[in-house]
Amino acid sequence: MAPVPRYQQIAAILRARIEAGKLAPGQRIPSEPTLMQEFGVARNTARHAIGLLRDEELVVTVPGVGTFVRSR
Amino acid sequence: MAPVPRYQQIAAILRARIEAGKLAPGQRIPSEPTLMQEFGVARNTARHAIGLLRDEELVVTVPGVGTFVRSR
DNA sequence: CTATATTTGTGCGTATGTATG
DNA sequence: ACATACATACGCACAAATATA
User: Fold this and answer.
1) Are B68 and B26 in contact (CB under 8 A)?
2) I need a labelling partner for B42 at 20 to 30 A (CA). Which of A15, B26, B30, B48 fits?
């Protein structure tokens, strides 16, 4: 039984928040350190989750600033 | 083989200076850029070391000013 | 009051090492 | 060999707070 990787779980949670409007377009999603604390994971794992959302073009990352929900 | 992380080493050095009175209560400890140069580390690493001392309540940080040895 | 420099706060990019299944 | 996950540590950029000229 393949357990769902945590980075996928975290991505799913963030995706749900975005689709529920809890994270609105243009809004900044929680930073990597925040996700680290909220989910109790390492930075790599938090980054991996964000990377999935970026691949889906749900979010856009601005280096040094943050990651934002994409407007549509 | 776990080498002692540099941020722990730096924290230990600063802690020793404090306990030896080389850094007296109320006195400002070296700034982050100074620690970077003195120990040849990145800012994150210097900050990590300071963070440990802050967790131990050996120092207090004032944003925009510096980090000071705690009085007791 | 304005402008500049200093210092800390925050956030992301990247690389490497360790450990486990 | 590979994927997952944590830890360490380098870097860059910009903002906020403070001090000083």
Assistant:
1) yes
2) B26
Query: Gap from B36 CA to D11 C1', in Å?
Result: 13
Rounded Cα distance between A46 and A59, Å, is 14
Q: Which of A34, A26, A32, A36 is nearest to A58 (CA)?
A: A26
B4 touches strand C (CB under 7 A): no
Number of helices followed by number of strands (H, E) in chain B: 3, 2
Residue identified by tokens 């100074």 is B34
- Helical residues (DSSP H) of chain B, grouped into ranges: 6-19, 32-39, 43-55
pTM: 0.85
Residue A65 has pLDDT above 90, yes or no: no
- Nucleotide D11's nearest residue (CA vs C1') is B42
> Between the CA of B42 and the C1' of D11, what is the distance in angstroms?
8
The residue ranges of chain B whose pLDDT is under 50 are: none
